[in-house]
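Translate sequence into structure tokens.
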Amino acid sequence: MNKFFIFLFFISIILFSFYSYSFIVTHIIPLNKNFILNVQPNDNLNKIVKILKANGLKGNTFLIKLYTRIFFKNLVIKVGSYEIDQFSTYWSILQDINKGVGITIKIIIPPGLKILEIAELFQKNKIIPKEQFYNIIGDLDFLMNYSLLQKPEILAYWQNFKINIHDKKLEGFFYPETYIFSKGVSYKIILSEPIEYFFKILEKFPISQLTFLEIYKKIIIASLIEEEAILDFEKPIIASVIYNRLAKNMRLELCPTVEYILPKHKKNLTVEDLNIKSPYNTYLNLGLPPTPICNPSFESLKAAFYPANTEYLFYVSKGDGSHFFSKTYSEHLQYKNKSGFYK
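Result follows.
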């Protein structure tokens, strides 16, 4: 019996020594070094400990990892860049990694930007190089994450235009919002977030009652509204004009659809511009363009799903951001002469 108690005593001493030693080196002794810890995809505890040991972590590697596996069983190693200062301890670093509390980057996507402009925005903010941006949004594996874009009726719609829309398939699907990412996360994760958020927003509308192509066309119409309207209260009215003209088989004749195919914005389009042969040019073609022409806001999406009930077929800018709306062409010409936009 005495031997048993002696055995227990020695085991207790060993366990207490292990716990005390491990607690001190993991919780109390700082690394005494300032550096950036970059956690990459597939990094594990062994890799983290190895990096920290190379940057000042004291103590026995085996005991540190054993202690961690016992007392931090639910540790989740999250990708990111973590700012380590001289007062950071091993345990405080693990807690930050587990929470994903690393260095963050912020990007604001304003409403109405085209994919081209979003690519430039990400590059300007040194988040994603433009070439990598286009490589990802054109990657078939990446696109497979968004089932709406794989539906046969939408693929057939694109094919009708007989043009290459390889880098425009996600036009309209980057929801305008402020996004914050952990520095170091993959480019695909960064680009997925505004797209996935768009689909969450889309669920707020009655999409279950529509075919996939009808949903896609409403996104296209929302992008037209976004480009045409400045004032939110006018958006349902402009939406009604678009639907009314489509119903009467009238060309939409919207300047932004021409500007979409031009290298830069023009306030006044020339006759030559209006005659550019492109399926996006609604001055020459009936119906909607092949894809959205920008990435619309919530209010523009709302207007596309809930247009006003009007008989308007025309509108013209007043020059102050608002519009004159009319039912007849003669009335439209009167308003156009009255407008300050063309003076």
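Note: The chain has a mean pLDDT of 90.
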